[in-house]
Q: What sequence folds into this?
């Protein structure tokens, strides 16, 4: 079991419906924008679990400062005790196991959700209890829009889907047993190979690399 320290927060009671796992790799400026994007969500029944990859004391303290500055008990901060350096797999797995939501998603530190991201995703999962995951379109690094259905390797980012936690538990036992760079696609592909139904909502509410979208970046920075 991966050793980590809880630097801030505790699971909410009652449990929220949505858990957001945010992995951070030393990029505190990016993380500030990511946190603000979640704070601006119109969907409120959620938690955000920030997990850092043993970045050192100074960076840990800055992450803690950013998390506590939200003044939001729905935000938690966990810090790995040893560097994993494995494309975010270990921090994401720690956040997944710590999460308590019925639905779970993964939002890296340099990405963001638009305010209206969650309501249609939760509504779709509620309307079709058999669905394993639902995903929206992605505004990708200022270059292209990812809106592929069915999902394809290299054409979907891990930040797009909202997963039904039971599907991940059923097929992956609440773990991310991957060891390669494209592990995000392996997670999605594993669920599809096991026959988990999915749904695509053609709304570009996930932003990959906020840095590439000046207007969105300015809006999030102004919110701070």
A:
């Amino acid at each position: 079991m991966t050793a980590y320290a809880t630097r801030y927060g505790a699971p909410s009671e009652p449990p929220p419906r949505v858990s957001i796992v945010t992995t951070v790799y030393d990029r505190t400026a990016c993380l500030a924008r990511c946190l603000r994007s979640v704070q601006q969500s119109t969907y409120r029944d959620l938690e955000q679990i920030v997990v850092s990859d043993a970045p050192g004391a100074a960076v840990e303290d800055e992450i803690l400062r950013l998390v506590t500055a939200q003044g939001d008990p729905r935000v938690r901060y966990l810090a790995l005790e040893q560097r994993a350096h494995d494309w975010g797999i270990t921090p994401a797995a720690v956040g997944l196991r710590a999460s308590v939501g019925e639905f779970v998603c993964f939002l890296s530190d340099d990405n963001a959700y638009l305010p209206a991201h969650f309501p249609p995703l939760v509504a779709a999962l509620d309307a079709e209890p058999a669905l394993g995951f639902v995903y929206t379109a992605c505004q990708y690094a200022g270059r292209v829009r990812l809106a592929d259905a069915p999902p394809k390797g290299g054409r979907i980012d891990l930040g797009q889907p909202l997963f039904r936690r039971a599907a991940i538990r059923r097929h992956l036992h609440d773990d991310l047993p991957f060891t390669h760079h494209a592990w995000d696609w392996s997670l999605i592909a594993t669920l599809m190979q096991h026959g988990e139904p999915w749904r695509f909502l053609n709304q570009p509410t996930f932003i990959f690399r906020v840095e590439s979208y000046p207007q969105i970046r300015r809006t999030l920075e102004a919110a701070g």
About this structure: The chain is about 35% helix and 25% strand.
